[in-house]
Specification:
Layout lengths: L18 E2 L11 E4 L5 E2 L12 E4 L7 E2 L4
Length: 71
């Protein structure tokens, strides 16, 4: 089930998240997100139909090396 009413996601500074999986924020009302430093992969369609999303920022020490097409 989609979390349509979710508008804010805050990752802790010590987040060990390393992948945003396919559909992680599918059809979610999130408006902005900062990708944690340890995330190295954002799968295809991670933000599919997240139509309210207007801002994606990356930590200054970001380790993202793979962004799937269609995200």
């Amino acid at each position: 089930q989609d979390s349509i009413n979710l508008t804010t996601v805050d990752f802790e500074g010590t987040s060990s998240l390393n992948t945003l999986e396919r559909g992680a924020f599918r059809n979610v009302a999130i408006t902005k997100i900062q990708i944690p430093a340890l995330v190295n992969k954002i799968d295809i369609h991670a933000f599919y139909q997240a139509n309210s999303l207007t801002s994606v920022t990356f930590a200054s020490n970001s380790s993202v090396t793979i962004i799937g097409s269609g995200t």
